[in-house]
Amino acid sequence: MLSLVPIIILVIMLAITIYLFGSDALGGGSQVCLLAASGVCVLIGMGGYKRKWKEFENAISENIHGVASALIILLIIGALSGAWMISGVVPTLIYYGIQIIHPSFFLVSTCAICAIVSVMTGSSWTTIATIGIALMGIGEAQGFDPGWIAGAIISGAYFGDKVSPLSDTTVLASSVTGTPIFSHIRYLMYTTVPSMVLTLIIFTIAGLSHEAADTGHIGEFTQALDSKFHISGWLMIVPIATAIMIAKKVPSIVTLFISTGLATLFAILFQPTLLAEVAGDTGSQLLTLIKGGMAILFGSTSLETGNTAINELIATRGMGGMMDTIWLILCAMCFGGTMTAGGMLESITRVFTRFAKTRVGMVSSTVASGLFLNITTADQYISIILTGNMFREIYEKNGYEGKLLGRTTEDAVTVTSPLIPWNTCGMTQATILNVPTMTYLPYSFFNLISPLMSIFIAATGYTIVRKCVKPKTEDAKA
C-alpha cells in the first residue's frame, strides 16, 4: 500500500540512525529521518493523491500550533529542574527520602506517590518534572536500575493523567466522544483500577526481591549531598507552595513559572556558594549571584561532590537541554501533518475499521488504531481526536455508548504515548528523567497493561451495554 511507504522508510531510517549514533540519535539524526519521511509524504501526496502544497503547509502549521503550549512548558520545565536542583529542593527531598522510604517498598511507593500527585495535578509532565526527578535520585541511591525507577514513575504519573478531572487528555477524550466528564472517569475505572492493581503487585514483588544497597553506600550518598548543599526543611516551602497552586487549579504554565522563580530565590538564599561555583568569579557578589541564578535556568551545570553517582544525579541542563527535544517535536509534527494532509493517514486508518464487526474486534481495532496514530502523528492529542472521530459512527451504529469509545481511546492513546521514542510524551519523559524511552518501556507496566485490559474487559462484556442489537452483528461471537 502506497500510504505505508513513508512509515516503512521512517522505521528503516530510524533503525539505521540509532545503530550509527546510539543514544546521540536524538541530537539530530532522528530529526533528519522525520523530515526525510515528511518529504516522502509530500511527494506521494502531491503525486499519488493529487494534494496541493498549501494543504501540507496548513496541516504542519496546525500541528505545530497544537503543541505550542507544550513547547513552552518544556522550556519552563528545563528551567525548573535546574532551579529545583541547585536550590537544594531536590537534594533535600532525596536526603530525607532515602531515610524514610524502605528499599523493599520503594518501587511500589514511587508508583503510588506519582499516581496521587498526578491525580491532584492532572499532569503527568508536572509530576515527573518535580517529584519524579527526586524519586529517581532516591532510587539510584538505593541501588535500583534506572529503567525500573522510571517505569514506576511513568506508570504512576499516567494513572492520574488518565483519570484526573484536571487532565487535558481526560477532558479531550470525553469531549470528542460526547461523554460527560465524570461519567467518562467512572467508566475508565473498570479498566484502570485492575491495571493499576496488577502494576502495584508487580512493583511490590520486584521491590521485595531487590537486593538493597548497603547502609554504607546510602550513607555516602547522604553525606555527599549534605556536604555540597545546605540541606534544610525550609526548602520544602517550594514544593509545598507548588502543591497549593496545583490544588487551587492555577494553570500549569503559571504554576511551573512561579515555582521556578521561587526556587531561584531560594538558591540565592540557601546556596550562594554553589551559584558562585556555577557563575565563576565576576568580582561582585551581587553580580555573581545574578549570573549564577540565570545560568542554572538556561544552561547546564556540573558540580563536583567527590561521588561520581551524585555528580551525574545533580547535573542539570536547563532550558538549553530541552532544545533537542523541542527540535524533535517540531520535526515529528511535520511528519504527522504531511501524513494527514497527504491522505495517507486516512487510507491506513480505514483498514482498522474493517475489523470492527464484533465487540472485541471493534475495541481491538480502536486500540490498534490509537497506538498506530500515536506512532505516526507523534502526538497524543491528535491521536485522541482522530481515534474518537474515526470510530464514533461505528460505535453508534453498533449500539454502543460513547463512553466505551472514550475509555478505549484513553486506554490506547493516553498511556502508550510515553512508550514511543519520537512521540512528544516519549521524548519529554526521556529528557526529564534522563532515561531513554526504550530503557524504561519494559518496566512501564501500567502503560503496557492498560490497552490489553481494555480488550480483556471487552471480551468479558463486563459493564458494556448495547442500546440496540442489530441482526447482522453477532455480539455473541465477541
How would you describe this protein?
This protein is mainly alpha-helical. α18 packs antiparallel against α19 (359-377). The chain has a domain at 69-321. The chain has helices spanning 5-21, 29-47, 53-66, 68-86, 89-100, 106-121, 124-141, 146-163, 168-176, 181-208, 215-228, 237-247, 252-270, 272-279, 285-298, 308-314, 323-341, 344-353, 359-377, 380-397, 402-414, 424-433, 437-440, 445-460. The two termini are 29 Å apart.
Major sheet characteristics: none
Rg, rounded, reads 23 Å
Number of strands: 0
| Class of secondary structure makeup | mainly alpha
Q: Calculate the mean pLDDT score and round it.
A: 83
Strand content: under 5%
Q: Count of DSSP helices?
A: 24
Give the helices and strands as they follow along the chain: HHHHHHHHHHHHHHHHHHHHHHHH
Poorly predicted runs: 471-478
Give the overall silhouette.
Answer: globular
User: Considering DSSP H and I runs of 4 or more, what fraction of the residues is helical?
Assistant: over 70%
The CA-CA distance between the termini, in Å, is 29 Å
